[in-house]
Amino acid sequence: MNIQIYDTTLRDGTQREGISLSSADKIRIARRLDEIGVAFIEGGWPGSNPKDVEFFERARDIEWQHAKICAFGATCRVKGGPEEDANLKALLDSGMEICTIFGKAWDLHVTEVLRTTREENLRIIEQSVAYLVSQGQRVIYDSEHTLDGYKADPVYTIETIQAAERGGAELVVLCDTNGGAMPWEVAEVIRAVRAAVSVPVGIHTHNDSGLGVANTLVAVREGAVHVQGTINGYGERCGNVNLCSVIPDLEIKMGFSCLPEGNLAMLYDLSHFVAEVANLHPDEHLPFVGKSAFAHKAGVHAMAMRRNAQAYQHIDPERVGNRQRILVSELSGRGNLLTKAEEYGVRVSDAVDVVGVLNEIKSLESQGFSFEAAEASAAMMLKRQEPGYKPPFDLVDFHVNVEHRDGRGTFAEAMVKVLVNGELQITAAEGNGPVAALDAALRKALTPHYPALADFQLADYKVRILDGDNGTSATTRVLIDTRNGSKRWSTVAASPNIIEASWHALADSVEYGLAVAKA
After folding, report:
1. Are residues 296 and 440 in the same domain?
2. 228 and 333 share one domain
3. N or C: which end of the chain has fewer CB within 10 A?
């Protein structure tokens, strides 16, 4: 059985605090949603702002492969007719085949917000839908506050939905707009509405009680065939229901079809793409699509996973485009390191003291290191245990000087001494800071011997104070991300001296790139 997926990221999702999408952003996201194969994409409210008007103008010229683009709006105004209503005119002017309009299902909103009568509310619902249908539009009706309305007056709430059906709506969507409903309440309302109308029923939930996904799945079990939500659960207050959870739950757990066959594996990339366009950090702890969704840290878990991947995973992560990760930390066991060695191509023989490396990791973590975010440093600790391994360079010493000169400002100079193939290399360089100067001096010494180093780029540099009570004597953790083309790795070090921590993280990064990442 097919379940229609209606994405409202471009409208409801942008109501999240901190999100603002340009028309170009919305087109980019809409293209990706169309590519994955959702049935409907709600582009926005053309009567509310110029950006949405521009979106629909651009959307008209695009050949969409899977999705229908929907324009969103409200019923006509109280005491007004639909023919002269500016909002409904904007929907028609959008040029979209499908209009989604909402009306009031809760008598509190009728009397306190619209400040009209219950009869007038029924009139504007039915006439607004009927007018759009008479103009050749397909109409989806969003019954706002259905769950709260049903609790207050179930008879009247169903009458509002029947008014939309009489007007010609092809689908009625029951909305838990305040996000406060319980699953059993959703089940009751779905059953009641399905018994009262002949058109298909959909569900639109919010997450204010943390039950958006549960309420959506219950609604589908009770016969809803249309699901509205947003990518990553973006939305007002606590957000809308997260389609990145609902879709795999429906397809994998419940056996429904939501996307074209094979497209579920695009979900991880879609989640991260939308976060990037919205200029938000991805929530890596989201179910299914977070990097941590299939990350295993405990030693017992890691060893069990080596024997059977199903031991601590509810699905194969590749089904949603994700991957299994084994973390290395003070909680690790031998299985974590063995898996990490295999992942990084490190040959673990009987000569490799895995337990010794594990104990060293635990000791370093007690001093402020954190290896779960810096797996390249853990890989290097194993690599150095390989029989016959020779590091590409050995540090002899380094010197850093930071100055401020009149007319020039502040700058840094660094000198490094390293052994490369038995030869002592002494180089110096300047930078706008001590770490930049160290990086430049090290590259200057090594690049003639290792030309590939020229392609290494510093991608990120993070500093964290671990014991702030010690003031400027506090231990500092440094995390360095390095990139070489599509490959990226992270290294870590910690010390009361931020320059020393930076140097060791930097040296690990270069050694890893030369010794392991090239393989």
Report:
1. no
2. no
3. C
Measured CA to CA, the distance from residue 451 to residue 453 in angstroms comes to: 5
Is residue 105 domain-shared with residue 188, that is, in the same domain? yes
Q: Are residues 25 and 132 in the same domain?
A: yes
CA 39/CA 247 separation, integer angstroms: 12
Gap between the Cα atoms of 329 and 298, Å rounded: 8
Helix orientation angle between 334-343 and 299-307, rounded to the nearest 10 degrees: 60
CA gap 189, 204 in Å, rounded:
13
Q: Are 256 and 1 in contact (CB under 8 A)?
A: yes
pLDDT digits (tens, 9 = 90+) for 342-396: 665 666 555 555 555 666 555 655 555 555 555 776 777 777 777 777 888 888 8
Please indicate, yes or no, whether residues 96 and 240 belong to a single structural domain of this protein: yes
Do both 224 and 335 map to the same domain? no
Domain count, the chain: 3
CA–CA dist 81, 124 (Å, integer): 8
Judging by DSSP bridges, how do beta strands 423-431 and 409-420 pair with one another?
antiparallel
pLDDT (tens digit per residue) in 401-447 = 888 777 767 888 999 998 988 889 899 998 888 888 888 998 998 99
In a domain, 178, yes or no: yes
User: How big is the chain by its Cα radius of gyration, in Å?
Assistant: 29
Whether residue 124 sits in one domain with residue 74: yes
* Domain contains 519: no
HEC sequence for 383-420: HCCCCCCCCCCEEEEEEEEEEEECCCEEEEEEEEEEEE
Rounded distance between C-alpha atoms, residue 243 and residue 320, angstroms:
12
* DSSP secondary structure string for all residues of 220-285: HHTT--EEEEBGGG--STT-B-BHHHHHHIIIIIS--B-SSTTGGGGHHHHHHHHHHHTT----TT
